[in-house]
Specification:
With 659 residues, the protein is mostly helical. It folds into four domains: 6-224, no CATH class; 239-386, Serine Threonine Protein Phosphatase 5, Tetratricopeptide repeat (Alpha Horseshoe); 430-510; 542-644, no CATH class. The protein is built from 31 helices and no strands. It is elongated and about 120 Å long. It holds the Pfam family Med24_N.
């Protein structure tokens, strides 16, 4: 019924002489609820009505042109509809169809699912067969002296469009995909080529003959496209460079830049890679990494690697002899090549929710790798490309701040924080607490750590926190006012260091230059007590068995006190004693001395103020549980669950949720 109604609507529009935009408005009114015009075959229905007489109906053709321009119909359905027209004796109708093809054949694309992309490939293959049939018809008519001039004119128009379609590598690639999908359709093309060849002799040595021969050779080259392209790729693609960059970005963000520079230069020399293609391959690998990396911390790492570390690597590569040309010209040339990889750049922009190329160019210019004129020229070209491509920003991403911009802003912040941490905070630690608290908000910490890792500052950044949680940081005597601040400074520093060790590995925290017998508390705890992949902890290790008097007083404090006294606490001693205290508490619970309610009160005391106590307790419990039989684990696992659940109450210290 809808198909019938569609034809009636077109006829009504023609009878009442609606303009094209009136027609579009009324069509949407006739067919509400987002009717898909391709399913209704709108393009075919319009062409069918327009081509009834010896010449096309201009009004109905204007509706089709409006539908194409406003994307009511897809290019694939228009091409399919055109390829069904076979009365080539109606010259004016053929001319109109060729003019419709002019509207989009140089920019064929489609939006939607893979099936729609395949439909476009098939439609293009059908239209190729139609072009060949059309050319054969007019090449045959050239023999007739009475119709020679008109036939040559029609043939010229047909071959011009065919050449325009085939001159695009992308269009030939789409036809190649259709050939692989439907071998039978390609055999129809081959038969049409044979028929056209039989009539080409009628053209003599005219320009039309050479134009037709060019089209035929382009069509015959389509089946060999992949093999020819793979030869070109061997000359321009360098997978070793790609692998070195991807491995470094994935596994070694914190590594020094010099070893990477030397590896890359060795590959460049061994494979004799021209400098522009070498730099291009580096950027291609970076963008692939950005697109493919998992969300979260890994995404921030890759962003920092691409926008902060790799420009620094190129600055060092610039110092090596590169041949006659200036290295900045090679970098500019590499970016010119990169601009041609529009799908790669679009995908990266979509992933990062920003214009990645523009930000990268600005960073390279800042590092002296590009002149300002070249930078502006490349930014303008990318902006023009983005205008021609469909909008990549989705509504839900519109308010999300892009990671590349955040990472680039985090880099100077790291330097400022390092300077702030170097100041003397022993007399008034509140200022330092404000800095640390600000770092905990949102994803600030991960951004700062990624920026520090990419610029080689992570070790010194982490060492500042190792010193912050040291008991020697405070010269002034403990007081009721300083107690909570001391507790928070210790806790935030401890938790940040745990996060750094888990994200970037414990080696970025360890120092080679500790004085003998003065290993900071966190290093000791991390090496012996912190669970890591591949590390087996011994719950009976001496580090878990500190001074028994301290353990007893801690157990009494946890069990009896309604709340922890913050003033007298030496937090590094508490964290070392907590494992033995937990063992005592577990034994008391196992033997019925303590009830579940008592255990809840104890775990609330442990996690309620200083979260690092809970971390140390769970670290020991994890090691302890692994030594127990399955039937002995229940109470230990219950305690882990209790400690891992945040406390929802007002009587907690500042920044509790963030911690």
């Amino acid at each position: 019924m809808k198909v019938v109604n569609l034809k009636q609507a077109i006829l009504q529009a023609w009878k009442e002489r609606w303009s094209d935009y009136q027609w579009a408005i009324n069509m949407k009114r006739f067919f509400p609820r987002g009717a898909t015009w391709d399913i209704l075959n709108l393009a075919e229905a319009l062409l069918e009505q327009a081509m009834i007489g010896p010449s096309p109906n201009p009004l109905i053709l204007s509706y089709l042109k409006y539908a194409i321009s406003s994307q009511m119909v897809s290019y694939s359905t228009v091409l399919t509809a055109i390829s069904k027209f076979d009365d080539f004796s109606r010259d004016l109708c053929v001319q109109s169809l060729l003019e419709i093809m002019d509207m989009f054949c140089d920019r064929l694309s489609c939006h939607g699912k893979a099936e729609e992309c395949i439909s476009l490939c098939r439609a293009l293959l059908s239209s190729l067969t139609w072009f060949l049939r059309c050319a054969t018809f007019y090449a045959e008519k050239v023999k007739d002296p009475l119709e020679q001039a008109a036939a040559e004119n029609q043939l010229k128009m047909c071959l011009e469009r065919l050449e325009k379609v085939l001159s695009s590598t992308k269009n030939r690639a789409l036809i190649h995909i259709a050939k692989l999908e439907e071998a039978s359709s390609w055999s129809t093309v081959e038969q049409s080529l044979v028929k056209l060849g039989e009539h080409l002799n009628n053209l003599g040595r005219s320009p039309l003959r050479s134009q037709a021969d060019d089209c035929v050779s382009l069509i015959k080259s389509i089946p060999t496209m992949l093999s020819v392209h793979s030869e070109q790729l061997n000359k321009t693609g360098f997978p070793t460079v790609h692998a070195v960059v991807l491995l470094e970005g994935t596994m070694n963000l914190t590594g020094e830049t010099q070893p990477l520079v030397e590896q890359l230069m060795m590959v460049k020399r061994m494979q004799r890679i021209p400098s522009p293609l070498f730099v291009l391959e580096i950027w291609k690998a970076c963008f692939v990494g950005l697109i493919e990396c998992p969300e979260g911390t890994e995404e921030l790492k890759w962003t920092a690697f691409t926008f902060l570390k790799m420009p620094q690597v190129l600055v060092k590569l610039k110092k090596y002899p590169q041949g006659d040309k200036d290295f900045t010209e090679d970098v500019n040339c590499a970016f010119e090549f990169l601009l041609k990889l529009t799908p790669l750049l679009d995908k990266a922009d979509q992933r990062c929710n920003c214009n990645c190329m523009s930000l990268l160019l600005q960073e390279c210019s800042k590092q002296g790798l590009l002149s300002e004129a070249n930078m502006n020229n490349l930014i303008d070209k990318r902006a023009a490309d983005k205008e021609n491509s469909p909008s990549l920003k989705s509504a839900e991403n519109a308010n999300i701040q892009p990671n590349p911009g955040l990472i680039l802003r985090a880099e100077p912040t790291v330097t400022n924080i390092l300077k702030t941490m170097d100041a003397d905070h022993s007399k008034s630690p509140e200022g330092l607490l404000g800095v640390l608290g600000h770092m905990l908000s949102g994803k600030s910490l991960d951004l700062l750590l990624a920026a520090a890792a990419a610029t080689g500052k992570l070790k010194s950044f982490a060492r500042k926190f190792v010193n912050t949680e040291s008991p020697k940081v405070f010269i002034s005597p403990p007081s009721a006012k300083s107690g909570p601040v001391r507790a928070l400074l210790f806790d935030i520093s401890f938790l940040m260091l745990c996060h750094v060790a888990q994200t970037y590995g414990s080696e970025v925290i360890l120092s080679d230059s500790n004085p003998p017998g003065e290993v900071p508390f966190f290093e000791t705890w991390m090496l012996t007590c912190m669970p890591e992949e591949g590390k087996i902890l011994n719950p009976d290790h001496p580090c878990f068995r500190p001074d028994s008097t301290k353990v007893e007083s801690l157990v009494a404090l946890l069990n009896n006190s309604s709340e922890m006294k913050l003033v007298q606490m030496k937090w590094h001693e508490v964290c070392l004693s907590i494992s033995a205290a937990i063992l005592e508490i577990l034994n008391a619970w196992e033997n019925g001395v303590l009830t579940f309610e008592s255990i809840q009160k104890i775990t609330d005391n442990i996690k309620g103020k200083v979260c690092s106590m809970a971390v140390c307790a769970v670290a020991w419990l994890v090691a302890h549980v692994r030594m127990l039989g399955l039937d002995e684990r229940e109470k230990s696992l219950q305690m882990i669950r209790q400690l891992a659940t945040p406390l929802y109450g007002e009587n907690t210290l500042q920044f509790y949720n963030e911690r």
